[in-house]
UniProtKB/TrEMBL annotation:
Xref: InterPro entries: P-loop_NTPase (IPR027417)
Pfam families the UniProt entry points to: AAA_18
Full protein name: Nucleotide kinase
Length: 165
């Protein structure tokens, strides 16, 4: 049986860092970050690009799921609405899979600190702080396992994800 991990969380919460570590801890593992499926300039969110990114994500996840080399598939993306999670799960072959839907969450002060660090380093633009904070509350409404990463490192978060059954 394969495992597929759908790991969501607002921008800056630590999804990518946690997933990179998790990938190293799981056997026969592959990792896909949803942002890689529409890394474009200028960044445009339109009905057409939204449709394209969902098709890209589902195509790649299905390729990983049908490949015998992988037993663990990790996917992370913002996934702030249940419809996004359901849309992905509805388009991928999960018949022989254990599905783990997880949301990484943290408190607002810690999220501000993490994002400010990225803004100061030139990794993100300043407008991401308010956009990310505005999404925080949306994760509580999702049908996902919540993992509070406010006071833990990405390494510790990955260890917690390993214990989720």
């Amino acid at each position: 049986m394969k495992n597929i991990y759908l790991i969501g969380g607002t921008m800056g919460v630590g999804k990518t860092a946690t997933c990179r570590i998790l990938k190293e801890k799981l056997p026969d593992c592959v990792f896909l970050d949803g942002d890689w499926c529409w890394d474009m300039h200028p960044f445009r969110v339109t009905p057409e690009t939204r449709k394209m990114v969902m098709e890209n994500i589902c195509f790649l996840l299905n390729q990983f799921l049908c490949c015998s080399a992988y037993k663990n598939i990790i996917f992370c993306w913002v996934m702030h609405e249940q419809a996004i999670i359901d849309g992905i799960l509805g388009k991928i072959e999960t018949g022989d899979c254990r599905i783990h839907t997880i949301s990484l969450v943290c408190d607002e002060e810690e999220l501000r600190r993490r994002l400010r660090k990225d803004v100061d380093a030139g990794i993100r633009s300043a407008d991401v702080i308010q956009r990310s904070i505005a999404r925080l509350e949306l994760y509580e409404k999702l049908d996902t396992e919540k993992v509070d990463v406010s006071n833990i490192t990405a390494e510790q978060a990955a260890e917690r994800l390993l214990r989720i059954k």
